[in-house]
């Protein structure tokens, strides 16, 4: 019913950039939630704006990297069939 996922080749390097972008994305989520529930109200709006900017920047960078990686591997695999 389901296709088996092919085993990864251990000789190929791991995709550390995707791991880094994913970690950055989740860290920005934690930072955003921390800044929203922060007790100091004097700079809460500024903190939310900074955290939202960090969140959106990491989200967009992750999406751009992911789409580039998918399109690049699709193009690469179509030129060099296994």
From TrEMBL:
The keyword Transmembrane belongs to this UniProt entry's keyword annotation: yes
Keyword Membrane: yes
Domain of life: Bacteria
Keywords for this protein: Membrane, Transmembrane, Transmembrane helix
Parts of the chain that traverse the membrane: 16-36, 48-69
Annotated protein name in UniProt: Uncharacterized protein
Species of the source: Planococcus koreensis
């Amino acid at each position: 019913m389901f296709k088996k996922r092919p085993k990864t080749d251990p000789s190929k390097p791991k995709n550390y950039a995707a791991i880094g972008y994913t970690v950055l994305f989740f860290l920005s989520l934690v930072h955003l939630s921390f800044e929203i529930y922060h007790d100091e109200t004097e700079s809460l709006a500024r903190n939310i704006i900074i955290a939202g900017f960090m969140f959106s920047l990491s989200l967009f960078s992750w999406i751009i990297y992911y789409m580039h990686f998918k399109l690049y591997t699709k193009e690469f695999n179509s030129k060099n069939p296994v």
